[in-house]
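Bench notes, bay 3.
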Amino acid sequence: MTLKRCDKGHYFDAIKYRNCPNCGVRNLNMNVTYDGRDNGISDDNQPTIRASDVFQPERIRQTDNLREIRDPDATQASWKRTKGIDSVVGWLVCIAGPDKGRDYRVCSERNTIGRDPSMQICISGDNTISREKHAIISYNPRKNSFLILPGEGRALVYLNDEEVVTPTPLNPYDLIELGHTRLMFIALCGSRFQWDSDTSGGNQQSES
C-alpha cells in the first residue's frame, strides 16, 4: 500500500485509486458535478454532474415505431388493459414537411398529436406544430371508426384542405395538415379487418 495525501487532507491508497475516493462525498462541500463539455473535468480537476444529465425515463420520446416509456400509473386505453397490447389500428405517414417519409402509429381510442414527447403521436421535427394537443385522432373499437378532432390551442388543423372545427370522420388516404407537415392516414381497422377484443388475433371481415 502506498498512502498519498490529497489537497483536502484525505489519505488514500495511490496504487488502488488514481484520485482521492473521499473527495466528492456528500456533505463534504466539494461541489462535485459532471460537465460533458470539458470531458468530465472541472477547473479544480473534480468530476461534475449536471441535473440535465440525470436519466429521466418519463421524458423518453417516441422513436420510430416505439412508444415512449410512461408512468405505470397513467391511464391506459381499455383495449390495452384487456389485451395487454396497445394494438395498432392505423398509421400516419408524413408526405411533406421536415419529417417527410416518417410514419407514426395510431392506436385504439384517443391519440394526441404534438411536438412534446408526452403526446401519443410525437412529431418533433416541425416547430410550427403545437407542443401539446395540436390535434387528436380517435378510434372507436365499438363502431370500428375513426375521427379527427381539433386541438386545445390556437393552432389550426386541416383535413383535405378544410379546417377541422368539430369531430370529423377520418377515412383511409385522407390528408391531414398540421403546421408545415402533411400526413396521409392509412387505416388497418375498417370494413375488412377489426381486432377481436377477446383474443390476440383479429377478425377479417368478408367482402359483400
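Next record in the batch:
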Amino acid sequence: MTPYLALFRARFRALLQYRAAALAGFGTQLFFGIIRTMILGAFYAGQGGGARPMTLGETTTYIWLGQAFFYLLPFSANPDPDVRDMIKSGQVVYELARPLDLHTLWLTRALASRVAPTLMRALPMFVVAIAFFGMTLPPAWPAALAATAAMAMAALLTAAFATVITATLLWTTSGEGIARILPSLVLIGSGMVIPLPLFPDWAQPLLTALPFRAMADDPFRLYIGLLPPSALLAVLARQAAWTLALVLLGRGLVARGQRRLVLQGG
C-alpha cells in the first residue's frame, strides 16, 4: 500500500495548489446554491400547508450540503482527463510499465482528485451558508459523526464509480459520450437536483436500488437528522457493498482492456 499512499499524498498536495480554481468553484456553487434555495422556497410557499417529507429548513440544509460537497459527488465522475490524454497519446504505456496494479492506481488518483478540491471548498461554504443562507448544524454530535463517517465512505464509493468510467477509455478514447450521459443520471439519482425525500413514493424503490443514493442522500439525511445515528451501520453496509461491486467491475474492465490495448509509436 505504500506506493499508493505516496501517490495519493503527491496528487493531493499538487491539487491543493489550485486555489484560484477552488475560489472560482466556490463562487459558482454559492450562486447556484442561492438559486436552488430560492426555487424550492417558492415551491414550498406555493404548496400550502400540506404534509411534507422535509421541512423548508431541512431542504435548505440539504441543498447547501450538496453545494459544499459538490466536487466529491458523482457529477465529477467523468473520465480522468489525465488518463484520457495518456491513452490518446500512448503515454499510458508508462502506467503499464510501473510495478503497480493499474486499477488501484487509477482508483487512488480518483480519490485524491475528489478529496483535495472538496476540502478547499467545503469549509468556506459551511461558514457562509450557516451565517447567511439558512443552513443549520446537525441536531447533535452523534449525527455529525455519523454523517462524517458516511461521507468518507461516499468518497470511496464515488471514486470507485469514477474509476469504472475511466476504464471505459480503454474502448473509447474520447469519453465524450459517457461524460454527457452520466451527469444527468447521477445528479438526479443522488439528490443533487431535487432532494430524494421529495420524490414521489413510486420512485423511492428505484432510487434506493441505485448506488447514487449512498453517494450523497444517505450522508445528508444523517447530517440533517432524517436518519438517526443508529442507521449508520446500515448506510455503511450499503456503501461498502456498492463500493466492492464497482471495484470488482472496474478491475474486470481494466484487466480485459489491458489484454486488447494496442499502442503505436516509439
